[in-house]
Write a structure and sequence with these properties.
Layout (H helix, E strand, L loop, with lengths): L2 H85 L8 H16 L5 H26 L5 H28 L25 H8 L11
Helix pairs in contact: 1-2, 1-3, 1-4, 3-4
Amino acid sequence: MDAGVMALLVAAIGVAGTLLAPVTTTWVGSRARLQEFELQQRGEQAQRRFEEAQQNVERRRETYVALNSSVRRYRILMMEDVHALRSGDPLDADGAVEAARLEFQDVYAQAQMLIPDSVLGPCHEVRVALAAARKGIAALHEAAELDQEEWQGVHADVMQVWDLIRVMQEAMRHDLGITASDAVGQPGGQLPHVPHPPLPAQERRLSRRDEARPGQDRA
């Protein structure tokens, strides 16, 4: 290859480089902006998912607080009816038990649309147990004479609801990431103690009657 051809090739390459440089620069810049936009989009999507997850957790937390409070109030007032059966006092004279039942049913209905099956299952068990105990109380109330053995059975049923409530509470705490336990829902599993939130003065008075004493039935 002579010098003339070589010079021509070098000139052609130079001209091509000059012409292609702006195109290459524009393409690289566009690619960089596209990647930056995609990264920004992914970041915003991740942020939205995080915020939605936090909102879901907060909604479940509020639902769990309402469920826990309503079911404990309903169960305590139901136990008051059990004691009224034995003492001969009128049942639910002020309508508090029925109001507590309706409140629990309303909160439970809302929870069905919000909480996962792992928590809804224990909540359902509590609901079924309370309904069965309520029927037992009604049957004793309608009887002509109080049968002590049947009364003891109803009393035991209402007392045992506490165990189901503890399982429900543990499932709620586990879902919120407060605690983890392989014992949730497992027969024979040892559940850690779940402290109850402070009760209003009236509920403290009612709940004292449910405290167990060694060697005696909790009454």
